[in-house]
Amino acid sequence: MKLLLEVVEGKDAGKRALLDQGLDVGRDPSVGLLLGDGEVSRHHARIEPRGDGALVRDLDSTNGSYVNDQPVAGSQLLRPGDRVRMGLTVLELRSEGQVARQPSAVGVAPQITQLEADVLRPVAAEELAPVEAAGVNVPGFMVEESEPAFVPRGPVGGDADAPSGRGAASDDYGAVARLIDTRVKRQTQVAAFAVLAIAGLALLIFFGAR
Prior knowledge:
Layout lengths: L2 E7 L6 E3 L4 E4 L6 E2 L10 E6 L2 E6 L6 E3 L2 E2 L3 E4 L4 E4 L2 E7 H6 L64 H44 L1
Parallel strand pairs: 3-4
Antiparallel strand pairs: 1-2, 1-11, 3-5, 5-6, 6-9, 7-8, 7-10, 10-11
């Protein structure tokens, strides 16, 4: 059965080699399937026919070889339809029947292994749609400062005509502190009275029971 190696991904996509005997794959001009991939070693791997399939052996390459995304350890058997990745290049082993049904296995896909000079080109301002035109409501970050709700206006002991600034803020803080202190003292007095009342009631109950 005739077998064919086709580059289906990478810089040399579409390149083919008839696998009627063993051949080396790599960047060295002497190999049977020459690749221009800089991630491929000069003598990267050797592929030779074996029955209805083939046998791939990595030649101690720098980046290794992979069959169907699994690393090749020693030698790996290939069946028609299996893919071998070397660097950024992917080869597919194809049978005569597969080639007859589909002449090429190269898929239509963007070339992601190379970056052109204008890939990261900054977008000009006139190419960007205004935010209002796009119908997006962007909340404003600059809002008018408002007074906190917990700070009473014109606190007791404060000066209502005091100018705004650090002095006014200090007066407001002092007024709030005094207000809290007054409430705490009032609660303390109520608690003390409650304790005395309970104690007196307990005494009355004790002497009354006797």
